[in-house]
TrEMBL record:
It comes from Rubripirellula reticaptiva. The keyword Oxidoreductase applies. This is General stress protein 69. The gene is yhdN_1. Its EC number is 1.1.1.-. Residues 15-309 form the NADP-dependent oxidoreductase domain.
Length: 328
């Protein structure tokens, strides 16, 4: 497993990280024993970065991670997230930070994160979403800075709202965040315009999420595939979205075949390697809920980089499809 620096102020982390949403819930049935086996297998395979959140099963994901790490001697960097108080997601331009991320709320929520993770210091605390409306008065981030000075937090980060990922550019340039978490994949390539270059300019760490487009870029679904009612992907791929996505994944397969690489790289490998081709990226958090998924995702780090001419060809798969999370 190759490692990269988590920005100018962070440690060396595995370039493939463990995305821990599914083990908390929200992706259909999940057995805790299976989740713990996946976590342990990931650490065995060299993964030393785990990303979780309060909202992943109301802290269940965090508690499972704490249980797994209790029996491990390895140093594992754990990032978690605090959501805003009740209100629209992502926050609207009319939301006040005082109502969504007040100092009292942040302190109470971070205390819950510490308890769930069984630690007295969070390696990386990220605000789970944001709005550009707060950029000129970013008091929540100043509260986190104070908590860092108190020793409760290591690094500070923001996970981008899907509708306005570039809102973090000002935060990076103002030195308010150590890390940003962004959506970047073969379909969503817009972060290459400014977010990634500014991250390099400012020494900000970059965590990439949704690199496999919620599993679709792994090439394992047909156009008729459906998910259980308790799996959020039922809404994400509602209507004709799955068929439209599969049609585009087939074009990516065709590119791989045209370069004669279809036997060396799986579609998932290509999706992950495309993201890792950017040196600004610190780690790619792939969702892992089973030993098989851990083995598939971690093997990518051992493969050769994709040829430059293929990377250029793959850029054509950028897809301006709007924001599916909002139910369009």
């Amino acid at each position: 497993m190759h490692t990269r620096s988590l920005g100018a102020h962070g440690p060396a982390v595995s370039e493939i990280g463990f995305g821990a949403w599914a083990i908390g819930g929200g992706w259909g049935d999940q057995n805790d024993e299976t989740s713990l086996k996946a976590l342990n297998q990931a650490i065995d395979r060299g993964v030393n970065f785990i990303d979780t959140a309060a909202g992943y099963g109301d802290g269940h994901s965090e508690r499972l991670i704490a249980k797994a790490l209790k029996n491990r001697s390895e140093s594992v960097f754990v990032a978690t997230k605090t959501p805003p108080a009740d209100g629209p997601w992502p926050p609207s331009p009319y939301c006040r930070w005082q109502d969504r991320y007040s100092a009292a709320y942040l302190r109470d929520n971070v205390h819950q994160r510490l308890n769930n993770l069984g630690t007295d210091r969070i390696d990386l605390l990220q605000l789970h979403t944001w709005t550009r409306a707060w950029n000129d008065d970013p008091q929540p981030l100043l509260v986190l800075r104070q908590m860092r000075e108190e020793g409760k937090i290591g690094l500070i980060g923001v996970s981008t709202p899907e509708q306005d990922q570039s809102c973090v550019i000002q935060l990076m340039r103002d030195g308010l965040v150590d890390v940003v978490q962004v959506i970047f994949n073969l379909f969503e390539q817009e972060p290459a315009a400014q977010i990634l270059p500014v991250a390099a300019e400012t020494g900000t760490g970059v965590i990439v999420r949704v690199s496999l487009d919620e599993g679709a870029l792994a090439g394992k679904y047909s156009g008729e595939h459906s998910f259980p009612d308790d799996d959020f992907r039922t809404r994400y791929f509602e209507g004709d979205r799955m068929q439209r996505t599969v049609d585009r994944v087939e074009k990516i397969r065709a590119d791989l075949k045209a370069f004669g690489l279809q036997d060396q790289y799986s579609p998932a490998d290509v999706a992950l390697k495309f993201v890792l081709a950017r040196p600004e990226v610190s780690t790619v958090i792939a969702g892992m809920r089973s030993v098989a998924q851990v083995d598939q995702n971690t093997r990518t780090s051992q493969l050769k980089d994709l040829p430059d001419d293929l990377l250029i060809q793959l850029r054509r798969h950028q897809w301006h499809r709007g924001v599916w999370y909002s139910g369009k």
